[in-house]
Write a structure and sequence with these properties.
Photosystem I assembly protein Ycf3; elongated; 69 residues; mainly alpha
Length: 69
Amino acid sequence: MRQETLKYGSKGRNLLTYSDRGEQAIRQGDSEIAEAWFDQAAEYWKQAIALTPGNYIEAQNWLKITGRS
């Protein structure tokens, strides 16, 4: 998904931040905080997908498999 964020400009940087912080929280053993960060990332992905529905296939799959779609 990192490559897809580049297509989304400044919001892509937010997505990376949210995703990275979620992964960091997982490494620190805080799944509740991780879920909150991933939920933030999901909201941005949903906006990006709504703007360009044919793009961001990886993100669409991530939303589906994580139950965030």
